[in-house]
Amino acid sequence: MHRSRLAGFIIDCQTEALEAAASFWSGALGLPTRPLPNEKDYVQLGDPADRLHIEVQSVTHASRVHLDIETDDIEAEVRRLEQLGARRVAQIRTWWVMQAPTGQRFCVVRPQSPDFAAGANRWP
Amino acid sequence: MHRSRLAGFIIDCQTEALEAAASFWSGALGLPTRPLPNEKDYVQLGDPADRLHIEVQSVTHASRVHLDIETDDIEAEVRRLEQLGARRVAQIRTWWVMQAPTGQRFCVVRPQSPDFAAGANRWP
């Protein structure tokens, strides 16, 4: 048995000007920025309602938005998603980048939310 | 004075097989599908925690994920976002498609959430 759920999304910005990118998205979405310690490529956007985990990321590929699925068992979750039709793209640090059968890239990550255990789906 | 906030996101899928696309994303995110009456291009994914408004859409452009900003005054919100550096792309039915200075497309839409009034930001 393992658990997973939608953790949130990352706004991937093809820029080296991470602060300017985060400033735009913070203003547009009305969410304050929360710098992440020891992370030069990510700025968190804090949702006062704690609805989702949202970050702005500096990337070298084309700008996009990608979803994050959080799980307490990365390998089991990746296998579950493969059964649904997704494929593995690359393993980075602790997470897997995957591609949906509909073409979008998304990531399978460790639990991000304080209430992960209460809100996640359980898979046999 | 007008109000706005992040409403959610739409998973744009370049496919005519909307049901199959919605089925994948429903399974992947662990969110049940909620068919929308009179909509042949959209299927809602219902979040039991009502965190965000999420839909899967059949599109003819490349697959992606786009964010929706909900507002009680579309024109005022579009102008506010233009001041932040976004630009108008196209007006469709009741909403505007815009492009962020970081390149992503997003939409400015009418209020989607039952608790919009309580949770939205107020702009002068």
Secondary-structure blueprint of this entry?
The structure is a homodimer of 124-residue chains.
Chain A: E1 2-14, H1 18-29, E2 33-35, E3 42-45, E4 53-59, E5 64-71, H2 74-84, E6 87-92, E7 95-99, E8 105-109, H3 116-119, E9 121-123
Parallel strand pairs in A: 1-4, 5-8
Antiparallel strand pairs in A: 1-5, 1-9, 2-3, 3-4, 6-7, 7-8
Task: Please describe the structure with a list of short key phrases separated by commas or semicolons.
homodimer, 124 residues, alpha+beta, 9-stranded mixed beta sheet, 9 strands, 22% helix, 44% strand
Give a nutshell description of this structure.
The first copy, chain A, is α+β, with helices and mostly antiparallel strands and 124 residues long. The first copy, chain A, is built from three helices and nine strands.
